[in-house]
Specification:
The complex is a heterodimer of chains A (108) and B (250). In chain A, 85% of the residues lie in helices and 0% in strands. Chain A is an all-alpha fold and 108 residues long. In chain A, helix 1 packs across helix 3 and helix 3 runs antiparallel to helix 4. Chain B folds into 2 domains: 101 residues, Ubiquitin-like (UB roll) (Roll); 128 residues, Orthogonal Bundle (Fumarate Reductase Iron-sulfur Protein, Chain B, domain 2). Chain B has a 5-stranded mixed beta sheet. Chain B has a two-stranded antiparallel ribbon with strand order 1-2. In chain B, strands 8-9 form a two-stranded antiparallel sheet. Chain B starts with a strand and ends in an 8-residue tail after the last helix. Classes of the chains: A mainly alpha (108), B alpha+beta (250). At the A-B interface, helix 1 and helix 3 of A face helix 10 of B. Bound molecules: iron/sulfur cluster (2 copies) and FE2/S2 (inorganic) cluster. The site of one iron/sulfur cluster (SF4) has 14 residues of chain B, from helix 5 and helix 7.
């Protein structure tokens, strides 16, 4: 993939992530007030299409954003060459996407 | 020359302590004392050491007036053009410490190998390619056009490698093309006469290209002719979104 495409993808995914992170963190603060149990969480998320969609977008944006940033960090801080770095970034992408989606579906 | 009178009534000449790197990658610090003058540049001091103490001291300079870009060294930890840097400005009353530029292989004493720096120009696609022959009329370049103004603002680079030496990303990743080459690529992206704009952009945005820049501006802080390579790189990054000017024509 072209560097230019990755660069734009990382910036756009950051723009998507920013408001989602604020909602996500705000939600946690609100939800845990007075304690929180697994049943309470599941009661809110089970069958809730809106929350599932919200977190699917969140997971997708994070899975795009993080590996691209990781590439630069690995390039600066390790002696790995680009093929190795790209493989690790692809692995991270698959991992984040897979784990994130399974988490969303687990509570849906 | 500044002098003072000691209690015995004898005239004393003030001196300046200078520490200079001798050798290549492996080497040692050597200490010298030269006369402290009201007005002396770092390059004056190096020349005085070479003429009066150390004839084998290797260093580079040519114009001595801030035009050629060949005299850059690391002075008290910071990259500077030595012919235009006054000693008092960098030392206060302390020792003057001079070593070669950072991020480049050391050859001997204050001379470093500039080849990796020069190679970045090619790597970043910063090579002009005109499209017209001598039989065609030359391009008319409107000096007031926005593109020309952008190019003009970035044009006066003296290739001194001060920014390359100041850049931490270059320090971590020697494959990064660095500020000067990308600044040059930016001028070409704003040059209507340059027919290889798509290629220049692809190279400037290639691996270890402008996407690696952290935008923190060490290059801007130290560029002796006050260019803004970080701004040029930001311009290239904006082009990645807008796609403007990324086309080959002539
Ligand atoms: S702004 Fe970019 S090019 Fe300039 S010193 Fe920082 S990382 Fe290097
Ligand atoms: S941009 Fe400035 S610091 Fe960098 S090489 Fe050109 S003149 Fe020197
Ligand atoms: S000797 Fe030419 S710029 Fe310093």
């Amino acid at each position: 993939m072209k560097e230019q495409t990755l660069f734009v993808a990382q910036r756009l995914s950051a723009a998507v992530l920013a408001p989602l992170v604020i909602v996500h963190v705000g939600l946690i603060l609100l939800a845990v007030e007075g304690g929180l149990t697994a049943e309470e969480i599941l009661a809110r998320t089970r069958g809730n299409v809106a929350w599932a969609a919200f977190y699917l977008v969140f997971v997708a944006a994070a899975a795009v954003h993080a590996p691209i940033g990781m590439r630069n960090i690995l390039r600066e801080w390790t002696r790995l060459d680009w093929p190795a770095i790209d493989s690790l970034a692809a692995l991270l992408f698959v991992l984040l996407l897979g784990l994130g989606m399974s988490a969303v579906f687990a509570v849906f | 020359m500044s002098t003072s009178t000691n209690p015995a009534g004898e005239q004393e000449t003030a001196t300046l302590a200078v520490r200079i790197w001798r050798g290549g990658e492996q080497g040692r610090w050597a200490e010298y004392r030269v006369a402290a003058r009201e007005n002396q540049t770092v390059l004056d001091v190096v020349t005085e050491v070479q003429r009066t103490h150390e004839p084998s001291l290797a260093y580079r300079f040519a114009c001595r007036v801030g035009v050629c870009g060949s005299c850059a060294m690391t002075v008290n930890g910071q990259p500077r053009w030595t012919c235009r840097t006054h000693v008092r400005k960098v030392t206060g009353s302390g020792t003057l410490v001079i070593e070669p530029l950072r991020n480049l292989p050391r050859i001997k004493d204050l001379v470093c190998d500039l080849e990796p720096f020069i190679d970045t120009w090619q790597k970043a696609g910063a090579t002009f390619k005109g499209g017209r022959t001598r039989h065609e009329p030359p391009h008319r370049v409107d000096p007031d056009s926005p593109a020309r103004k952008r190019a003009d603002a970035a044009l006066q680079c003296i290739n001194c490698a001060v920014c390359y030496s100041a850049c931490d990303v270059v320090h971590w990743n020697r494959s990064y093309v660095g500020p000067a080459a990308l600044n040059r690529a930016w001028t070409l992206m704003n040059d209507v006469r340059h027919v290889k704009r798509a290629e220049t952009f692809d190279r400037a945005f290639g691996r270890d290209g402008c996407g690696s820049c952290h935008s923190q501006g060490n290059c801007v802080r130290f560029c002796p002719v006050e260019l803004n390579p970080a701004g040029s790189i930001a311009g290239l990054k904006r082009m990645a979104f807008t796609g403007t000017e990324i086309r080959d024509d002539g």
